[in-house]
Amino acid sequence: GAGDRSAKAERMFQLMDGFMTNDPMSLQKDILDHVEYTVARSRFNFDDFEAYQGLSHSVRDRLIERWHDTHQYLKRKDPKRLYFLSLEFLMGRSLSNSVINLGVRDQYADALNQLGFEFEVLAEQEGDAALGNGGLARLSACQMDSLATMDFPAWGYGLRYQYGLFRQVILDGFQHEQPDYWLNFGNPWEIERVHVSYPVKFYGAVEEKVLEGKKCHVWVPGETVEAVAYDNPIPGYGTRNTINLRLWAAKPSDQQDMEAFNTGDYINAVINRQRAETISSLLYPDDRSYQGKELRLKQQYFFVSASLQDIIRRFKDSHSNFDDFPEKVALQLNDTHPSLAIPEVMRVLIDEEYLDWEKAWGIVSKIFSLTIHAVNPEGLEKVPVDLLGSLLPRHLQIIYQINFLFMEELKKHYGLDYNRLSRMSIVEEGAVKNIRMANLSLVCCHTVDGVSRLHLATLKTRVFKDFHEFWPQKFQYKTNGVTQRRWIVVSNPPLSGLISRWLGTDAWIRDMDLLLGLRDHAEDASLQEEWMMVRKVNKIRLSEFIEAMIGMKVSPDAMFDVQIKRIHEYKRQLLNILGIIHRYDCIKNMKESDKEKVVPRVCIIGGKAAPGYEIAKKIIKLCHAVGEKINNDSDIGDLLKLVFIPDYNVSVAELVIPGSDLSQHISTAGHEASGTGSMKFLMNGCLLLATADGSTVEIIEEIGNENMFIFGANVQEVTNLRQNGLGVKKSLQFARVVRMVREGYFGFKDYFKSLCDTVEDSSDFYLLGNDFESYLEAQAEADKAFVDQKKWTKMSILSTAGSGRFSSDRTIRDYAQNTWGIEPCKCPS
Ligand code: CBF
C-alpha cells in the first residue's frame, strides 16, 4: 500500500544519504570498489587500463547522479525542450572533459596520486568515440556541451555505430583503412537502457481502411527492427545540469521471423535476426556524398523513428492532446540527414493519433528547424523515389501530398512558371526520379540556418535562391562556435591557468567575451614572457608526440606550421604541399650564407581521405613522398621538415593545436561553409594563414587583418575567374613546382599524373595556380613576423583575446532565442 511505499522511499533516502562526496578518501574508495566489483580485478593487482576503468566508473556515478536530478527537475517543470537530431557526434574522449565540467579534476588527481597513479597517464588510456566524420560531427559535440553548460533543456539523439570512423594506417605513404571497433574494451560513458526500446518498421505496403466512417492508412511492415537506447550523460560546466545524448542501437525484434522459427528453419531464422544489427553497425566514412544507399536511408529512418517515438511518449506522459506540442517541442535537423522526421511526424499524427491533415501540418510547420552545412547544390542529399517507396511506402505518399500542396501554393504565387516549379519541387524528375531532401526540409521547417554570414549569402544567392525569394523570413545564420571547455581548458591547461591569472578570474570559461580583457595586456612584457613559456611547453609536448608517433625528431624552436582537417581538393592541402616544395627548392638553391636567414619550419599535415576519394588519397601519398625527400636531405637539415600525422582524430587535435604557431585554413573562397578548426587554433593563440572563406571573414573582423595572414581570391573573384573559363596566368614558380612532381622528382611519376592534371590550366577548378603567388607572399609575411618574437607574441595574445565570439555558447544562445524558442531551466544545486 501507500504506507509501504513511503516507508520504502524514506529508507532509500536514508541509504542514499545526499550527494556523492569528493574528498580523497571517498574518491579512492569509489575507484577501488569499481576496480574490484565492476572491472573484477583485485584491488591489490591492477594496471593503468584497469585503473582508468575504475576511475571512469567512479566519475560516471557522479554524472549519473546529476543526470537523474536534471531529468527529475525538468519533468516537474516541463519546459519547452530542444531535441537535436544528428546522424553524427564526434565526442572524442570523455574523462578529462567530465571531471573538468564536474569541477573535480584536482580532487581526482590528488586522490590518484596517493594511490600511485597519475591522472594524465590514465586519461591517455581512453580511446576516442569517433561517431562522426569531421566538422559537422564535432560541432554537434561542442553544441551539446554548450547546451548543458547554459542549462538549456535539451536532448541529443543519434546512432550508436558499432564501428566509428575508420582508423587511418599509413603504409609506404599510402592510406589504408582499418575498422574502428571502439567498443572492444567496453564504454564506461554509456548506460544501456534495455527497457527503453521501440520497434522500427520498414518495407511492406499501405492498406486503406475505413474506421468509424473515416478513411485511414494502415502501414503493414515487411520488417521490424528494435531500437535500444544507450544514454550518454553530458555534464554542463559550473552547473548541476547534465543532459542526455541518447544513441540508438539496432537489435532484432521479437516479432521478427516468428514464422521461420515456427516452420523449423531455426538456423536461417537466427542468421536473419542478426542482420537487423547491421543497421547501426557502421558510420559512412564520406563527409560529402550520401547518395542513394539503402543502408544509409535505413539508418536515417531508424534513428528518426526511434527518437520520435521517445519524444512523443515523453510529451504524452504529461499532455492529453497535441495542441501544445509546438510549445513544448523544438526539433532541430542537423543537416538534411534526419529530414525523414518530417513525414514521420505527419504519419504518426495522422495514422496513429487520428489528426486530420490540416491539424497535423499546422503542428509540423511550427516545430522543425534546419541547419545546412553544405555549400554545393551537388552535395545535397537525394533519394531515388523507388528506394524510398519500397523502404517507406507510407512516407512516400505523405511526401507526394506535401509536394502537391506546395506546388499549388507556388502556382498561386507564380502562375505556371514551370521552370521555377520544377526547380523547387521536392520531386526531381529525370531518368531516375529523386526526392530532394533539402527541398522537403525547406518546405516544412520554420527556420533554415546557415553556419556563417558568408554561407548564408551563398545559400540565398546560389543554393536556395528560389526558396529565399519565396520565404525570405525563413533564412538566418548562426556562425559556428566551439567549446572553450574542451578546446582550452581540457587541451591546454597551462594557457587556461595563465589566462585566469591575468584576468583575475576563471569566469571566461562560461563567458568567453571576458577574454577581451587580455587586449589591455598584449604588450605587457611579463605576460608576453609567460605566454611564450606556455607556448614552448606545448611545442615540446608536440615534438615528443611526433617522435613517439613517427620516430622523427623536430626542433621546438622552429615555426610549427599546421594543417589538420579532412583531406579535400577544396581545402587545398595540395597548395600547402606545393608551397613546401617551393620552399625546399629555394633553400636547395640558396648560397650557404643566406641559409642563416631562413626561418626553420616544421610543416605538419594530418587528415583522413574518404576511402573512395582517389585524388585525396594521392595528396596523402604526395605529402609522404615530398617528406621523404626533404627530411632526408642533408642540405636542408632542420631548416625544413614535413610531418604527416597519421590517424588524425579529436584527441590528436587536442595535442597538436596548443603546440602550433601557424595554422592553415586555405580553402578556395566560397567552398567552406564555416570551418571550425580555425576557431580552436585562434583560442589557443595560434596565428592563422587563411583565405577569406566561411567564418574566417568574421574572424578577420574580430582579430584584424594585421594579426593574420590573409591571401587569395575572394568569393567574387573566384566567381569571375570561373566565369572567364579559368584561363588565368600561372606564375613560373607554380609551373615549376607542378613540373617537379609531374616529372618524378619525388618518384611515383605515373601515380601523381592525374593529381597534377587537376591543377593544369583550364582544369584548375580550385584555383591553386591563381592563388599560389599570394600564398607565397603570405607565407613570407609569416616568416618575417616570426623573426620578431615580441611582435609574434603580441599577435598571438590578440588572437586569443578576440576569439570570444567563436564560442559555441554564443551560437547556442542565438539558436535558443531566434530559432528554437527555448529558455534555460536550471536544476538547483
Ligand atoms: O558546420 C560545421 C562544418 O560542417 C562541414 O564540415 C560539413 O558540411 N560537413 C563543413 O564543411 C564545414 O565548413 C563546417 O564548419
Automatic annotation (TrEMBL):
Biological-process GO terms, alphabetical: glycogen catabolic process
EC number, UniProt record: 2.4.1.1
Reactions that this protein is recorded to catalyse: [(1->4)-alpha-D-glucosyl](n) + phosphate = [(1->4)-alpha-D-glucosyl](n-1) + alpha-D-glucose 1-phosphate
An example Gene Ontology molecular-function term: pyridoxal phosphate binding
Class of this enzyme: transferase
Claim: Signal is one of the keywords in the record: no
Cofactor dependence: pyridoxal 5'-phosphate
Highest taxon of the lineage: Eukaryota
Sorted UniProt keywords: Allosteric enzyme, Carbohydrate metabolism, Glycosyltransferase, Pyridoxal phosphate, Transferase
GO CC terms: cytoplasm
Record carries keyword Zinc-finger: no
Family: Belongs to the glycogen phosphorylase family.
Function: Allosteric enzyme that catalyzes the rate-limiting step in glycogen catabolism, the phosphorolytic cleavage of glycogen to produce glucose-1-phosphate, and plays a central role in maintaining cellular and organismal glucose homeostasis.
The protein, known as: Alpha-1,4 glucan phosphorylase
Positions spanned in the full protein: 174 to 1002 of 1002
